[in-house]
Structures are given as structure tokens and as C-alpha cells.
Design brief:
The complex is a heterodimer of chains A (about 120) and B (about 110). Chain A has about 120 residues and is mainly β. Chain A has no helices and eleven strands. Classes of the chains: A mainly beta (about 120), B mainly beta (about 110).
């Protein structure tokens, strides 16, 4: 089946640094990818929709200058957490679909810990 | 997708018994549904999907039932095993859109 690859799986960084997370669709092209944040024992919170070749669409309350999204190709979207702070520590997950109303596949997630 | 950030209900099942996890969806226009399994520290894993032209679909040890009249979706797991312990959540979507709405999720605990 379709696979979405996400890495790194875990990253620890110092406060004030930036962290980039990659999300790749391995066997299908994804014009649209999604980025989520998940707190312990809670459901997924959609942060933004990443659109290939255009600007990402951010959900209300998500700072676009804080969470930079780049979707430069049909198989790669990146999320950069800029000037990370301890409150940005969380589990970040991406997902991708081959088309509208089609199966949505998730990456394995990235656990970000900001010291 | 939309956000649901609530604490998760828990279903405890004896190993070997059947599990039934329920999901009420919100949009009567939704015509595509997916069940996911999420283990601790991992991304959600696709289990099974169903389109609105079907009422039931079976996979390996899993069955999804769709009741469009009451906008209800269920996931049945036969002969539940310890490895089935995880959080399960449903997703609904409308064909022709990239909009996915996720359910709150249910934590399944399998008791030995």
C-alpha cells in the first residue's frame, strides 16, 4: 500500500534553534499534504494544509511565521519549526493523499523536544 | 481535516473477545470513511475504509459497518489480541474534497 515517510522520528534541540521535519510520499504523488500536532492522549490537531507549488493554508491560531511549510515537489513537504521553544515540544505528524476523497496515509510522526 | 482535541474514552476487552468501536460522524454529505489505529509514539495506521455505497466491508479480522441513516460508523475486531491495544479513530471525507474530519478516538485496552 501507499507509504508516507516522515523523519526524523525524534529530535531534541535547544531553545531558539530551528528544526525541519520532512514528509515524503513514497509511491504516489501528493499535491496536498497535511501537518498535525498531537498532545499526549489527545486526538490530532490539524495545523496546516500544504499545497504543492503554492502557499500553505494554516488553521486558525497557528502562526505561519513560526511553522514554515514548504511543498516544493509532489512527493515532499517540509515543516520547519522556527526559533523553537519548550512549548513547541510535541508530536508532529504529516499525512498525504493521492487524490481528493481518497485514502489518507500518515507518516510515522516526529517527537520534538525543545530544551 | 478539522480538529478534535478531547481526552479519549477507553474500551477494555478481554483477550479473545470481539471488540466494537463506534464513531458518530457529523456531515451527512460525507461519503468516504476510514478507520485508523494509532499505537503510542507512532503515526496513525490505515486499517480499513468504506464508501457510502456500501453498508459493510470486511478485512482481516476487522469489519466496518456504516449506517448512513443515523450517521454511525463502527469497527469490529474479531478475537481481539494484545497487539490490538491502541487508539482507534475514524475519519470522514467528502469525495471531491481534501477535507477530512477526524473522530475523537477510542483507546482499546486488551486484558490478558
Amino acid at each position: 500500500g501507499a507509504v508516507v515517510s516522515q523523519h526524523p522520528s525524534r529530535v531534541i534541540c535547544k531553545s531558539g534553534t530551528s528544526v525541519k521535519i520532512e514528509c515524503r510520499s513514497l509511491d504516489f504523488q501528493a499535491t496536498t499534504m497535511f501537518w498535525y500536532r498531537q498532545f499526549p492522549k489527545q486526538s490530532l490537531m490539524l495545523m496546516a494544509t500544504s499545497n504543492e507549488g503554492s502557499k500553505a493554508t494554516y488553521e486558525q491560531g497557528v502562526e505561519k511565521d513560526k511553522f514554515l511549510i514548504n511543498h516544493a515537489s509532489l512527493t515532499l513537504s517540509t515543516l520547519t519549526v522556527t526559533s523553537a521553544h519548550p512549548e513547541d515540544s510535541s508530536f508532529y505528524i504529516c499525512s498525504a493523499s493521492a487524490g481528493m476523497g481518497e485514502k489518507l496515509f500518515f507518516g510515522s510522526g516526529t517527537q520534538l523536544s525543545v530544551l | 481535516g478539522e480538529n478534535v482535541g478531547l481526552h479519549l474514552p477507553t474500551l477494555s476487552v478481554q483477550e479473545g473477545d470481539n471488540s466494537i468501536i463506534n464513531c458518530a460522524y457529523s456531515n451527512s454529505a460525507s461519503d468516504y470513511f476510514i478507520w485508523y489505529k494509532q499505537e503510542s509514539g507512532k503515526g496513525p495506521q490505515f486499517i480499513i475504509d468504506i464508501r457510502s455505497n456500501m453498508d459493510k466491508r470486511q478485512g482481516q479480522r476487522v469489519t466496518v459497518l456504516l449506517n448512513k441513516t443515523v450517521k454511525h460508523l463502527s469497527l469490529q475486531i474479531a478475537a481481539t489480541q494484545p497487539g490490538d491495544s491502541a487508539v482507534y479513530f475514524c475519519a470522514e471525507s467528502v469525495s471531491g474534497t481534501y477535507k477530512y474530519i477526524f473522530g475523537t478516538g477510542t483507546r482499546l485496552k486488551v486484558l490478558a
